[in-house]
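Lab notebook page, bench 4
Experiment: in silico fold of construct C2
Operator: M.H.
Input chain length: 218 residues
Purpose: comparison with the prior construct
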Amino acid sequence: MTDTPITPPGDLRASDADRERVAHALNTAMAEGRLSVDELSERLASVYAARTLSALVPLTTDLPEHGHLWPAVGAAVAQTPSPGLSRVGGNYPVLKTAIAVMGGRTIRGRWKMPARLTAVALMGGVEIDVTHAQFSSGEVTITAVALMGGVEITVPEDVRVICSGIGIMGAFDDKSHCDCGPNAPVLRVNGVAVMGGVEIKRAKPDPESVNHPDKQLR
């Protein structure tokens, strides 16, 4: 009887969820100061070029998140749910990452903003509209990384924005200034724009949006 060959975990094909999970960990590491912008750019390029798990695992070995991403070294790698879209409560989806690589990603309508959301635009564009978003807590954070791309964040009038991003041969522009009360929900925006741009702006009154707030994510 011939045994059926078993594919080593490292030779297994990587899924979009695997790549997205690693990209999220790398962006978090950059926001915490563990990786430089150049290191992040280099590793992200390797993430999106990866075809197997063996190509992804080495990209996080020097980061605290590694043990959570790849809990069983040398054994079958447990597949965890994608950090992307999942349903929570009612009919509102929650989104933890928004990534655009040489393309576009738009988030709007009724959705739930988690405590932390990572947006990455690599030679592409990400648009995040939190006008009708439900916050998971009184203070949430968006880490925006624009590498030769753009991230646009639209906020409603009743949300206070605290921006601490930096621009390197690019712009991190907060146009959302308002006199919000001390009890207003807080949206913190950090990150970096390298030869790209991050813009935060206030939503303009839109009668159609008010009458039809339940537009789905695109």
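Observations: The longest helix spans residues 16-31. Residues 86-211 form one domain.
Next step: discuss at group meeting.
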